[in-house]
Design a protein that fits this description.
This protein is α+β, with helices and mostly antiparallel strands and about 80 residues long. The chain has helices spanning about 5-20, 40-50, 70-75; strands spanning about 25-30, 30-35, 55-60. It has one domain. Helix content is about 40%, strand content about 20%.
Length: about 80
């Protein structure tokens, strides 16, 4: 999942480190959707644009730090609320 987005990020990381160090990029497929000053803004825009479709938000840093969002990882965003857990 998100392999295309991760590859795109890795291909452009050095370029973005010069232009947007410390900022957050929103990527869908092989396209940069936007650059944001904080993670919340990037996630909000991703949800607005893509709903429950997958997208990547990553901070532009020298070393890669993964962000763990339990609702996404556990599939809660795709939960069917008409059926009890």
């Amino acid at each position: 999942m998100l392999e295309k987005e991760r590859n795109y990020f890795n291909e452009h990381r050095d370029e973005w480190l010069k232009q947007h160090p410390g900022e957050f990029v929103l990527i869908k497929g092989d396209k940069l959707i936007g650059v944001f000053s904080n993670q919340a803004e990037a996630l909000s825009e991703g949800a607005r644009c893509f709903g429950t479709d997958s997208f990547l938000v990553r901070q532009v840093e020298e070393s890669e730090q993964l962000v763990y969002i339990p609702a996404l990882t556990l599939g809660i965003l795709h939960a069917n609320s008409t059926h009890p857990a």
